Amino acid sequence: MSTVDTQVASATERPEDASLSTGRPSPEGAYGDAAERLVPVGKAIRYRKRAQQAEQQFNDLQHDLEQTRKQLAEADALVTRLERRQRIDQLLADAEAVDLQAARLLTEAVVAEMDEPDIEAAVDDLRRHKPYLFGRSHLAGIPTMGVGGAAESDALELAQDQATASGHRRDLLRYLRLRRAEHRR
Predict the structure, then answer these.
(1) Does residue 103 contact residue 69 with C-beta atoms inside 8 Å?
(2) Predicted TM-score (pTM) above 0.70
(3) 134 forms bridges with which residues in the sheet?
(4) What is the pLDDT of residue 91?
(5) b/e string for 4-41 if b means 16 or more Cβ within 10 A?
């Protein structure tokens, strides 16, 4: 046992003998009655590199897991919004809404303010307070596209998206003005 990186105490030596031959106390607490083991320096370096790589992989996997959980939460929120929108559309169609988009925006605004969203109550409230949005209209058979159809339709859709996203009264009123102007043509 002349070089430090290749020293290994044999299993037949006693712990006292190992401490005498290496000049160090034996690690009886670490191995109990087992013989002292010294690992070559090259192996120790490889073990350390492998441990660092394993830690890096673990950290990468944790990061991937967090990203996946965020994506799942976003997908769940999207599904919830789409299901709510579908339910609103269904209830508004059953209530014979004349202007489905305007009624949907108003209903979504009311539902968003509720602590416990009740879509049916919101539609009933909208029907009571804004009866002109419901019932049969003499304009039902007339197409709503005017002369400048495509550009105005895009502006209308942008106004609708902005009103839905922001929830501000100003944006909602802008959308309703554009919608009314389109119906008058």
Answers:
(1) no
(2) no
(3) 97
(4) 92
(5) eeebebeeeeebeebbeeeeeebeeeeeeeebbebeee
